[in-house]
Amino acid sequence: MAKQNCAICGAEVNLLQQQKLADGNYICRKVCAKKAMGDFDFVSATLYSVKEHIIQVEDGTKIYQKLFVKHKPKPRCPGSQRVLVAEDLGLIAKVDYKRKGLFSSYPVACIYRIADLYGWEYEEGTKVSMAGAASGQKTSDLKKVKYVHYYFWDTPGMSDFLDDIGGAMNAYSSLEKYYNQLFGIQKTLGNIKETWKNQIGAIKAAGSAIKAAATGSENLEAKAGEAANAMDRAQYGDRTEWIAKADAALRGV
Q1: N or C terminus: fewer CB in 10 A for the chain?
Q2: pLDDT digits (tens, 9 = 90+) for 59-70
């Protein structure tokens, strides 16, 4: 069996002990790969993104222990126990549990800013049931699973992930409503005025940027930035409050 050296710790690993990455590097499964979250995609990852993710987990676990354990936020989705939203902190924790011996485990976490959340899409998939795993993963043992696919802006490491929401009735609908309200994204006729105001603001800002470009204004860069921010507010809601909360919470860590 061909041996490689782990690109992180330098350990020599054989075929069964190594994890190959998308850029051709290898890392060891026994130590370095175990530092990642259980659902991290090594096959599509580069050495750089793996290193960033390991830092993300190390830092996230410290923040989780210092802030989330004390606040004890509840999961937003009835079928999930792994995604915790702490509104007062302006943060979201994705929690995983690592085995410690035969009968115990300990939590590790990735921490995200609520302000950086820009997508929460419903997806369906299949996975092998416990019975299927024991019987050799037969096709007949696959079960349908419902997920929420989370996406985050400007996040080194793992910037998106799937959260298994189980078979909870209307779980995604209530979750979608919650996040829309959180960011002031209005999707009901009664609140259409606020949406219209945001859209008009975005159109005016974009028009101002176009005018600046046409007239050769020296303020073009600032106008373009204003337009981009206005477009984001119209589509994703105003994140100013959530940025301030996260900055305040992380300042003390």
Answers
A1: N
A2: 999 999 999 988
